[in-house]
Amino acid sequence: MQDTRDFPSDLETPVSAYLKLARSGPGLRPRFLLESVGGDTRDGGTSFLGFGEAEAVRLELSHLPDHGSLDERRGPLLHALRRALARAPRLGGGEEPGAATDPTGSRFRGGLVGASSFSLARALAGLPLAPEDVAGTPTGFLGLAPHHVLVFDHRRARLTLESSTTGEARRALEDEVLDALHRPLAAPGARTNPCPTARLQPTTPRSSFLERVATAQRAIVAGEIYQVVLSMGFEASSDVPAIDLYRALRRVDPSPYLFLIHLEECAIVGASPEALLRVDGREASVQPIAGTRPRGTTRSLDLALERELLADPKEAAEHVMLVDMARSDLGRVARAGTVSVAPFREVHRFREVMHLVSGVRSELLGARDAFDAFCATFPAGTVVGAPRTRAMEWIGRLEAEPRGFYGGAVGLFGHGPDGRPTANQAIAIRTAVLRKGKISVRAGAGIVRGSVPEREYEEVLAKTRALARALSLAEGPRR
Length: 479
Known about the structure:
By secondary structure, this protein is an alpha+beta fold. The chain has a single domain (6-475), classed as Anthranilate synthase (4-Layer Sandwich).
């Protein structure tokens, strides 16, 4: 059994530890950083910093069958994900008190850390694959199976090293990590005084987006769909390091799901407010977010915008429809009578926007596991619309470019204490893909019959504002 040691961390932060490990050679090279900082969340007590050795995990979709029942087409995908998790090294040992916990508060004993693309969502729905997207993101799942993770317990001010190594090798690794962390940083501080050296530019003209909204509304009136989420892309040329963008985004938009993951082909940086799925043991939960207003510049204006959001019949109808979809999704893999909704239509505030948020929970049925729940809930209705598959078909018709990671998922599939896989997946929104000097971002808005096209366009812009500000800050002069 691996022993698990922890150390005081009151003078260390996940970001400072990342920077110290990054300068200490390839053996300690940071692989990912997962945090939970802002918003209404139970997850804010733990951060993860993966480093050093890690197996690359890639799920290709080109070999999947293009015929047969939906279950027959999904089977190879679920089998591949389960097989990848089974091969991932286990970290820590048994039930010792020092075992790591993931940001939901459940234990994380190793597993997969990565991102699922929107093409994976299409494959799970039995839809044709989209062409390779312009950002170079994968056509399925791309991630890491880490061997070493630093776990920050912020409530106890303790730092734990979780590793697949044992004995003398483990003690040598601990000494190497502690030596790196004890050396003071010489790097400059966070950049300030933002300057517009790189700006996110829309890849879709405003007029084209408004035309797509009008087309979607005609489809809604004709009964083709009830709602559809239309997105548009934004790009900037920049060689800003991923950690600099992450640091800036962390300041600009502290969120329940903050992530920086270095993948084979790109890096992804994001601040998602919305959980796709959490599975701990037999409990599964989702958190639909639908309904948006910008934050007010004063408290009185902020409260007025909250009242407007709660009273808006369009926002209410959209939110209720997506909560019902979430209940139906979990109901397909839940024990009868265990699906519940709480809270319902709460207003959650973030730096740039406020959202209507609900929570849906259930107990998994029999042999159903985290991957069955993922298949049932992915993609979230909040990023596609309703009915889900039909809305995805319309997205394929109306959006001129593939979505890449947008509308997919980012997070963990972990080894559970009872042998059952765990999941903590966020919806891939408010997310930037960094690849070969280019930064790609997408954002969307839910279109219903009563939508005002110009207002939906402004909502899309509002959802990119935090990343735009973070990029400007990261590109600005240093202190």
